[in-house]
TrEMBL record:
SMART domains: HTH_LACI (SM00354). It comes from the Bacteria. Keywords: DNA-binding, Transcription, Transcription regulation. This is Transcriptional regulator, LacI family. The keyword Coiled coil does not apply. PROSITE patterns: HTH_LACI_2. Pfam families: LacI (PF00356), Peripla_BP_1 (PF00532). Residues 7-61 form the HTH lacI-type domain. InterPro entries: HTH_LacI (IPR000843), Lambda_DNA-bd_dom_sf (IPR010982), Peripla_BP/Lac1_sug-bd_dom (IPR001761), Peripla_BP_I (IPR028082). GO terms for molecular function: DNA-binding transcription factor activity; transcription cis-regulatory region binding. Signal peptide: none annotated. The lineage of its organism: Bacteria, Pseudomonadati, Bacteroidota, Sphingobacteriia, Sphingobacteriales.
């Protein structure tokens, strides 16, 4: 039986009458290669289904051409969209992607870091868990020279590239919209108070109340760790909320998972939305507009966040010089008005939506 022999860049160069360095530059999209030569090489490798030998690349460049990703939960539609953005950039650049989940657990997050290091990843993209207050694992990565980029949930004090959204503005818009609809007793149900994004959303919520001369009521703010017992946590929160002497007439929820669980708990208690309780979610759920009552949402450009994070990480990996200045890129959020937050008629809803 004839033994398989992989095609090398030297083989491609010989067939096309080019130098090995020219083929290499064309494959890696380096400067100084004409569009015609690049097309010639790319057309040929597509024809012969050429794949670079990852072991050879690793030996040549001392790189694994792989990156690690840590998120709280892949099933969360927001994070799955971000992962799609990461993969779209990474694969085009010739990198494999290893995705891990922390399940909002600090210990699991540290285990994920160790596993990714053991796989010799060239860099790591991280959205920290709701439990994480000790960042020594990430400082250790920096000491080892392993690039780290934080996205969505980023620590305040670590020098690193960060890709985030304007959480303050998003929370302000959500709260302001409810107020403009005539809901003045607004509860805010959010994730762990240890997360910077939750601090920013609380501040945006408070600022909107202040703008419209509504007193901030700490009884209306509830924190949820969003771990394995999230249903029990949200059940308890909804029970507490509904039994307040001055019961809220609206809810602003801080995440996909929270929104789903809160809505389930409210339905079990025969609370009709928006008649009995208005609702706005900070969510990227694709199902937001097919709920029994379509949800008003603050959405985040998840795909673009993933793409931007991957570009920054790969740029850092491939940089020939030490990073002296880190970037923080902030994306805007978008308010999409649906029926869950409306006191007005459908005709008024259409008019308001057109004026956004």
């Amino acid at each position: 039986m004839k033994r398989f022999k992989p095609t090398t860049q030297r083989d491609i160069a010989n067939v096309l009458g080019l130098s090995v360095s020219t083929v290499s530059r064309a494959l890696n999209d380096f400067y100084g290669i004409s569009a015609e030569t690049k097309k010639l090489v790319l057309d040929y490798i597509n024809e012969i289904e050429y794949y670079p030998n990852p072991m050879a690349l690793k030996l040549r460049d001392c790189r694994s051409y792989s990156i690690g990703v840590i998120v709280s939960e892949i099933a969360n539609s927001y994070f799955s969209q971000i992962i799609n953005g990461i993969e779209s950039v990474a694969y085009k650049k010739g990198y494999n992607v290893f995705v891990t989940q922390s399940h909002e657990c600090f210990q699991q997050e540290n285990t994920n870091i160790k596993q990714l290091i053991s796989h010799s990843v060239d860099g790591i993209l991280v959205s920290i868990s709701s439990e994480t207050t000790d960042f020594s694992g990430f400082y250790s990565l920096k000491e080892k020279g392993i690039p780290v980029v934080f996205f969505d949930r980023a620590p305040r004090d670590i020098d690193a590239h960060k890709i985030i959204v304007d959480n303050f503005e998003g929370a302000y818009k959500a709260t302001e919209h409810l107020i403009k609809q005539g809901f003045y007793k607004i509860a805010h149900i959010t994730n762990s108070s240890d997360l910077l994004i939750e601090e920013e959303r609380i501040e945006g919520y408070k600022a909107a109340l202040s703008t419209y001369n509504i007193d901030y009521n700490p009884e209306y703010v509830f924190y949820c760790q969003c771990r394995k017992n999230i249903r029990e946590e949200t059940e308890a929160i909804v029970n507490q909320l509904l039994h307040l002497d001055n019961r809220p007439d609206g809810i602003f929820s801080a995440s996909d998972k929270l929104s789903t669980e809160i809505l389930i708990a409210l339905k079990k208690r025969n609370i009709t939305i928006p008649k009995d309780m208005a609702f706005v979610g900070f969510t990227n759920m694709a199902e937001a507009d097919i709920f029994e009552c379509p949800l008003t949402t603050i959405s985040q450009p998840a795909l673009e966040i993933g793409e931007a994070a991957a570009k920054l990480l790969i740029g850092q990996i491939e940089s020939k010089s030490t990073i002296s200045q880190y970037k923080t890129k902030i994306f805007e959020t978008e308010l999409t008005i649906r029926e869950s937050s409306l006191k007005c008629s459908k005709s008024e809803f259409v008019s308001e939506s057109l004026n956004q």
